[in-house]
């Protein structure tokens, strides 16, 4: 089919996003679940709480820690990823750095905010889904954020060339097949602004293509924000109605 | 160059009424065919009373308002507007604008009755988990020492600190002081407070306990359960225990003892770690009350004395009709609905 990707989407079409707040009733202060296509992520947030170790005590702000767990069955091959796995650690650092800059940490001195993420299923855009899930869980926990942090992926097809020599459209929200096939990047923005808080790319791409990819990613983020915001409002309304009775 | 992003295909299931096009929120960010507009006007808080604001939403740019909790000021370059940092409702106190989050961690206040768990024993104090951002401290000097309330603390007491409370013990206490960075200090210098035993511990969200005159309820139960004490900690920690008659009465029955001896016995019993014999009937009723409180909190109904009583009544009626309290949450929903109906009637 002309102009359609392998899963039938257009270049600028998002996969289905389904999100939920307050999914876990135990221990966690906030929790969320997000599905972006077949990427499924569960997130729990605890805190601000007493730091688990002395090293994590900061006198004037809260420490943000992130734990990422890959379910062994989450990918196409059954892989057990331990605590020291490179990919796990990379994700943890990326998420931790992103949120340290967005959470108003100065309000909670000498405390720790723990973001714990379980990846249940991977189908491309794992980092993006993790960031989105963490945002929702933090909102659910009532932790002050500057704004939503929304993440989205964008890829650049290398095989298709336009006759006129202009570069083809970048692909928004790549799935696993596309991700393993073409260069792609993950971009996270703060709210509606075009301020980027996280940008990660693991492949090589021609420099001329990069700008278009980032632009598409940013627009995707804005769309994701709208979807997440409507879920937060729906959840909030439901909760207020229950209390109003 | 505005980029049009096509929204994902609609997703509808029987259980979920999520549909962004018919979403009745305060405000929609996109037009009806689901296309986001890149050059849209700055977002504004829903003017509706009782509306919800979400992080990053401009609450107001009117300079007359003062910024309260849950908000922050935008950078000076774009005019000083107050922006929400939480998802919750706006509350206005005179000229102070603050946001109350839908769910939040407990923040201690002086006079709160809290249920806590001992985390650590230090030389002259305990560290107590009260579900707040920081653990609270309980000084050796702010507990009732055995052998009379008015006894001075001695070095022997310091050495025997674990005989009063040791790690993992549950206690009910009152917030006595707060340091200026929000650290709470507790006290148990009343016979109402002290170690907890003979019951079950449970947690709910801190915001779900309504502040009341008294947070210790005594509920007479049916099915031969006897009286049950409920300690509704303001911090969301709850302890439900078999009712114990005030210690002074129980010790004077049977044997006549001198007043000093009585105090000693009473105090020793305060720090006992051994549960009394609890009949299966009482256990059943304690479990029922725990289920009712969990269902109320899950249903978003604030827990207070009235709702616990009504909920318990409703649960009993369900039980008498032969309905088993299943783990599916349906029974809980029915009980909450019945309790709310009862409250509307009264």
From TrEMBL, chain A:
The keyword Cytoplasm applies. It comes from the Eukaryota. It is found in: Cytoplasm; Nucleus, Nucleolus. GO terms for cellular component: cytoplasmic exosome (RNase complex); nuclear exosome (RNase complex); nucleolus. Gene3D superfamilies: GHMP Kinase, N-terminal domain (3.30.230.70). Keywords: Cytoplasm, Exosome. Component of the RNA exosome complex. Specifically part of the catalytically inactive RNA exosome core complex (Exo-9) which may associate with the catalytic subunits RRP6 and DIS3 in cytoplasmic- and nuclear-specific RNA exosome complex forms. Exo-9 is formed by a hexameric base ring of RNase PH domain-containing subunits and a cap ring consisting of CSL4, RRP4 and RRP40. Belongs to the RNase PH family. This is Ribosomal RNA-processing protein 41. It comes from Arthrobotrys musiformis. The lineage of its organism: Eukaryota, Fungi, Dikarya, Ascomycota, Pezizomycotina.
TrEMBL record, chain B:
One of its GO terms (cellular component) is cytoplasmic exosome (RNase complex). CDD domains: KH-I_Rrp4_eukar, S1_Rrp4. Residues 199-245 form the K Homology domain. SUPFAM superfamilies: Eukaryotic type KH-domain (KH-domain type I), Nucleic acid-binding proteins, Ribosomal L27 protein-like. It is found in: Nucleus. Residues 105-176 form the RRP4 S1 domain. PANTHER family: EXOSOME COMPLEX COMPONENT RRP4, PNAS-3 RELATED. Belongs to the RRP4 family. This is Exosome non-catalytic core subunit rrp4. It comes from Arthrobotrys musiformis. The lineage of its organism: Eukaryota, Fungi, Dikarya, Ascomycota, Pezizomycotina. The gene is RRP4.
